[in-house]
Amino acid sequence: MAINTYLFFSGGTCAEAFERYRDILGGDLSITRMSEVPQDSRMPGSDPDSVMHAALVFGDRMLMGSDDPTGDGGPRLGFSVAYTAPDTETAQRVFGALAEGGETTMPLEPTFWSAAFGTCTDRYGVPWMVDVASGAA
C-alpha cells in the first residue's frame, strides 16, 4: 500500500508546475489532458487543455495532481510536501529551486535533527519542507 500526495492547481498551472517539479526532482512525468479523456467522461465545461491527471514518479515515490475543475485550487492549509534529500548539496539545490518565485518561510539551515532543514511555498502556492536524510551531510 502507498500513500501519495495529490495536488490541485488553480488557473491551469498543473502542467507547468509538474514540468518544473520534474526539472527540479527528476523522475518520469506523465500528463493526461482533458482533451484525451472520452467526451462523455469529461467534466461539463472543462477546458480541453486542462490537466485531468499528472504523475511524477521518482524512485519508489509518486507526486500526483491536476488542474482543479472548480477553478480555485482549494485551500492549502495544514500540510506540506516533504522532500528528503540524500545530502546537503542536493537539499540546497532543490530548496533554492522550489523557493524561487515563491516564499521562504524558514531558510534551509542545520538543525538538531538534520544537516539542513527549511520550508517554503513555491510559486504555485504549494508548501514544501526540505531536509537531509538522517546521517547524511
TrEMBL record:
InterPro entries associated with the record: Glyas_Bleomycin-R_OHBP_Dase, PhnB-like
Origin superkingdom: Bacteria
Pfam short name (any one): 3-dmu-9_3-mt
PhnB-like domain ranges (all copies): 3-130
Official protein name in the record: VOC family protein
Organism: Aeromicrobium phoceense
